[in-house]
Specification:
The structure is a single chain. This protein is an alpha+beta fold. Helices cover 19% and strands 38% of the residues. The strands form 5 sheets. An 8-stranded antiparallel beta sheet has the order 2-3-4-5-6-7-8-9. Helix 2 crosses helix 6.
């Protein structure tokens, strides 16, 4: 029989209990001395309106499927950073149209516009870019344009604050990728103060994947309270023309190919980890590597494999806490690099009580690239003694040492994400009907605190009602013992059938 085990967890999938953040210790504060202090990043983060303006008239700016028509107005260029202009504020009279390149997005957009073409009029907008927008503005400058009125500095400041407090998107970290690279950038983002659909519209073009629709590179999003959501998302027009558009494509600047993780989770569910993240550059000129990490997991330090400290970016967890590493030099295409990240925090895992622990940060409890990018994993977990850890990959070792249970796991075949569950589990084994695999189910016989509280409340309520002499009212008797042990057979049966179906469709598991 193959020792390729398929794990079936029957666990309490209940809402997480929030935990207050712990204050940083002096050592942690010292470890974050290289956080958010790169001088170029700080210039981008705190950028202001510069001294140069560009007047335009009847100027059309095309950005993939979107087209801006500036009837007349003024662009207030932002301060240059490393000799590059990364944005401008527009005041005047303009419009924006979007023609989605594929039928499904055209239909979706038509539903939102009630069958009308998407066209928005605006008199002000903030643009951020690392592509050739500056050159296009200068080519179309005129000397006799009408004067404009408004507060460009106020508009810029408002967008900067909204990025932090509402959108939670560190755009400055993304712009830094292109600004300090020797290679040309391709980022373009427009914050449009529209008059018809919304005064909060974002049109984004990013060759490395557009925010929430990645790996699609183009998106239209509204973010006012009445219309908040993604209105369109698709690939670059050139990809459709070349028939290369593919939602499985990997267009990030690097590919993470291996993660070596050492993680300790204590009884309160506080997680402390060390991640050795190895990645390979997909292009020349890589200086900034952005990774996904749960916001409340605070990075204490980042270093090279030989211990040299690295600058990194991770702003306040309540604002725009995107994690990024600034490399000491550019990487060439196919060049490898390993960064060691030490991090810790609460809320990524929740202690639900009764020996039930719920991993909230399913794909971001370690610095990685999330679903869609495949890597191999070596993982070591330290959990309170007496708890059972179940993780992806093959179990290599399990020992009790002091007050901890330590397990080691390896996933030699690349997988899209590493996961785990742990608690006071009961384990049962089974086999598929035909295929030579081992199936394991794990369940916790003890309910979490919230269920115990409901059961206790039910006991009190039932006693009061019975003692009142009135007819018995419907209470919470249907909760019973709320043990998941009775569900293990059902989960096992479903797993047995699933193995047969998936093997018929896809062949043997690797």
């Amino acid at each position: 029989m193959r020792r390729c085990s398929l794990l079936v967890l029957v666990s309490w999938m209940l809402f997480a209990i929030s935990a207050s953040a712990v204050s940083a210790s002096p050592d942690q504060t010292a470890g974050r001395s290289l956080a958010n202090n790169d001088p170029v990043y700080l210039k981008l983060r705190n950028i202001k309106i510069g001294s140069e303006t560009i007047h335009v008239k009847d100027f059309v700016l095309k950005k993939d499927a979107g087209a801006f028509t500036f009837h007349h107005g003024v662009f207030y260029l932002l301060e240059p950073v490393e000799g590059k202009i990364t944005g401008a504020v527009f005041l005047g009279d303009a419009s924006f149209t979007l023609k989605a390149p594929i039928d499904v997005e055209r239909r979706n957009l038509s539903l939102l516009t009630h069958g009308q073409p998407f066209e928005e009029q605006f008199s002000s907008a903030v643009f951020r870019f690392t592509d050739k927008t500056e050159d296009e503005l200068r080519k179309n400058a005129v000397a006799d344009a009408q004067p404009s009125s408004g507060d460009p500095a106020g508009l810029l400041s408002d967008i900067q604050q909204q990025l932090k407090r509402k959108l939670h998107d560190n755009l400055s970290a993304r712009l830094l990728e292109d600004v300090i690279s020797s290679q040309p950038g391709g980022k373009f983002t427009a914050f449009i103060k529209g008059k018809k659909y919304s005064d909060k519209i974002i049109y984004d073009v990013d060759p490395h994947g557009s925010s929430l629709v990645s790996p699609e590179e183009v998106s239209l999003m509204l973010w006012d309270d009445s219309h908040e959501g993604i209105w369109a998302g698709f690939h670059l027009a050139g990809e459709y023309a070349a028939h290369t558009a593919n939602s499985d494509e990997q267009n990030q600047t690097v590919h993470v190919d291996h993660e070596k993780l050492d993680v300790t989770i204590d009884k309160s569910a506080r997680l402390e980890g060390t991640a050795q993240t190895s990645f390979i550059a997909r292009q020349d000129g890589v200086r900034v590597v952005r990774l996904i990490l749960f916001p409340t997991l605070r990075v204490e330090s980042v270093s090279t494999s030989d211990g040299q400290p690295l600058s990194f970016i991770q702003e306040d967890k309540k604002e725009d806490p995107d994690f990024a590493i600034i490399l000491p030099r550019e990487l060439k295409k196919d060049e490898s690099f390993t960064a060691i990240t030490k991090y810790a925090g609460k809320d990524a895992v929740s202690n639900e009580g009764g020996g039930n622990y719920f991993p909230i940060a399913r794909d971001s409890w370690y610095p990685g690239q999330g679903f869609g990018s495949y890597a191999t994993f070596d993982m070591t977990f330290h959990v309170p003694k007496g708890l059972t850890m179940v993780a992806t990959g093959k179990l290599l070792k399990k020992i009790d040492e002091g007050n901890e249970t330590i397990t080691q796991w390896a996933a030699d075949i690349p997988q899209t994400v590493a996961g785990f569950n742990f608690g006071k589990f009961k384990r049962e084994e089974g086999k598929p009907l035909k295929q030579p695999y081992l199936l394991e189910t794990y369940a916790n016989p003890n309910p979490p605190d919230v269920v115990q509280a409901l059961q206790h409340r039910n006991d009190i309520l039932g006693t009061v009602i019975e003692g009142s002499g009135q007819g018995r009212l419907l209470t919470l008797d249907n909760l019973g013992t709320m043990s998941t042990l009775g569900m293990m057979k059902k989960a096992m049966g479903e797993a047995q059938l699933s193995v047969e179906i998936y093997t018929d469709f896809f062949g043997d598991a690797p």
